[in-house]
Amino acid sequence: MKFLCICQYGHSRSVALARVLHGRGHQAVPVGAGTSPAAIPLLADWADHIVIVQPQFLSAVPAAYHKRTKLFDVGRDRWSNPYNTELLDIFTKMVVTEGW
User: Fold this and answer.
1) Domain around 39
2) CATH number for the domain including 46?
């Protein structure tokens, strides 16, 4: 499966989620919600699933892709590091729960 992972800036939470998904054999691209307006629709076309890490990032996803969008709400970035074991554990549990 192919995933588009969206957080605020594309540096911490979305990268951590992409790492977890890569570890489970999936393709995943992390991106920030404020990225170029053309980038998210292009990546959304490519992705089977779009995962946002806070509800407000749904506004970065064009409405045509909302049916393929899943919320993994981990709240504000308090980790600032995609290698943080707590964050990786949280995402691992969410991914396993989804069956991905």
Assistant:
1) 2-98
2) 3.40.50.2300
Dist CA 16 CA 13 (whole Å): 5
Per-10-residue mean pLDDT, the chain, length 100: 97 98 98 90 97 97 97 97 98 98
- As a whole number of angstroms, the distance between CA 91 and CA 75 comes to 12
- Mutual angle of helices 85-98 and 13-23, in 10-degree steps: 60
pLDDT, residue 37, reads 80
Q: Give the pair of three-digit tokens for residue 31.
A: 């991106």
Provide the domain count of the chain.
1
What residues contact residue 1 under an 8 Å CB cut-off, 6+ apart?
A: 26, 27, 48, 49, 100
pTM: 0.96
Q: What is the dihedral of CA 37, 38, 39, 44, to 10 degrees?
A: 100
